[in-house]
Amino acid sequence: MSSSTKKQGKKGAGKGSKGRMGRPLMLAPEQVAHLVQITEEQPHISMDDLVYEFRRRTGITISRVTAGRYLERAGVQRLKPSRAKRTTPRITRSSAPPPVEPGSPGEETRYGYTEAHRDPGDATRYPCGLTDSEWERVQHIFDPPGRTGCPPKYPRRQMLDGCIYLLRSGCSWRMLPKEFPPWKLVYTTFRRWQSQGLFERMHDELRGLWRERQHRNPEPTAAVLDSQSVRTSPQGGPSGYDGAKKVKGRKRHLVTDTLGLVLAVVITTADVQDRDGAEPAVAVAMAKYASLQKLYVDGGYSGRCTRQLRQAFDLDVEVVRHPGNRNVGRWVQGQMPLFDDIPTGFVVLPKRWVVERTNAWNSRPRRMARDYDRSLAVSEAWIWLTEARLLLRRLDAPMQDVA
Predict the structure, then answer these.
(1) What is the pLDDT of residues 209-243, one digit of tens each?
(2) What pLDDT, in 10s, does the model give residues 148-193?
(3) SS3 sequence, the chain?
(4) pLDDT confidence of 96, banded at 50, 70, 90?
(5) Residue 392 burial by CB count (10 A; 0-12/13-18/19+): exposed, middle or buried?
């Protein structure tokens, strides 16, 4: 037998039933079903996350190529959106539907800021001031019973109202109206409460009450992570430049629950990447709430950052991507569709839109539209006070007004 015949014989010995080279794949049918189930639960999962999730469920380590071969045999393919022009027609002034008369059967429910959310105040209280019932909920935090020592010259309620007025109006400390105590005393009290963590404590107590009203467990098990870049004033303090958002200032890293209520806040300069600020923010949230098991993030945290969060905190981290993401695409089972039905433009992403709404809530008070403080700890305290004031208004309002 010649040498060429021997080589052909060796090549033919390694071929399978379909003429492929190499060692045959040895996954059981139930293990292949796990792969298919993962793609059905998370159609936009990447190959790295798919392999990790398969190892977490079955304890078997496979490569990306092997996972792709099994999915191909099971009829699961990855569909990536084309770069074709927009297929959905744009709504122009001529094609827009006619306006619906108020009170008509076709009128849609309006959500957002309505008259039910507006507080006119009274003769002695500004619209942003605390009502009697709201003060009763938080009085034990700022004015605990049984205090000893010299009695305060000004009521603690006026001090808190002064802080809230400055938050809502956006004025400087020196421009605080004369109805409040002297501005320097209010500022000193605010810094003392901030150092004691009273604003965070107030928010945590109110957050638990609101979750109970919404029939949720007070201890959350799922969280959402995101960041927001805000501009700073020439007042000074740490700042950086966010090249992606074209913003010179600071970045707010927030961890919220699935209701959009804040669990942890970390303030950094704007030049800190999202993946670098993710671990400190999640560490603060895990230290406060050890019940967290699931974490939702966007595509900016994928890759190495996601793997680090899983290993450091033993969390199930899921990356929620846009349906039109071309880097990952979408896993489809069966025949490939003839036309792309992938939406373009803005899409409300599940479990992700709640943290975006929280960022909008934090930007509503005029003091929060820009970061005026030199201290990062003070900027963090303003976020806790903003969210606590919102929860106070919700808890004090009737159920039908805050739904």
Answers:
(1) 999 999 999 999 999 999 999 999 988 899 999 99
(2) 778 888 999 999 999 999 999 999 999 999 999 999 999 999 999 9
(3) CCHHHHHHHHHHHCCCCCCCCCCCCCCCHHHHHHHHHHHHHCCCCCHHHHHHHHHHHHCCCCCHHHHHHHHHHCCEEEECCCCCCCCCCCCCCCCCCCCCCCCCCCCCCCCCCCHHHCCCCCCCCCCCCCCHHHHHHHHHHHCCCCCCCCCCCCCHHHHHHHHHHHHHHCCCHHHCCCCCCCHHHHHHHHHHHHHHCHHHHHHHHHHHHHHHHCCCCCCCCEEEEEEEEEEECCCCCCCEEECCCCEEEEEEEEEEECCCCEEEEEEEECCCCHHHHHHHHHHHHHHHCCCCCEEEECHHHCCHHHHHHHHHHCCEEEECCCCCCCCCCEEEECCCCCCCCCCCCCCCCCCCHHHHHHHHHHHCCHHHCCECCCCHHHHHHHHHHHHHHHHHHHHHCCHHHHC
(4) very low
(5) buried
Structure token digits, residue 138 = 């938080």
- The one-letter amino acid at 129: G
**pLDDT tens, position by position, 40-63:** 888 888 888 888 889 888 888 998
Token pair for residue 391?
Answer: 């929860």
For residue 120, count CB atoms less than 10 angstroms from its CB and return exposed for 0-12, middle for 13-18, buried for 19 or more. Answer: exposed
Alpha-carbon span 168 to 160, nearest angstrom: 12
The pLDDT, as a whole number, for residue 229 is 95
Q: What is the CA radius of gyration of the chain?
A: 28
- Give the integer Cα–Cα distance in Å for 32 and 40: 13
Nearest to 328 by CA among 345, 350, 303: 303
**Residue whose C-alpha is closest to residue 50's, from 293, 62, 349:** 62
Q: Is 50 exceeded by the pLDDT of residue 329?
A: yes
CA distance 292 to 181: 42
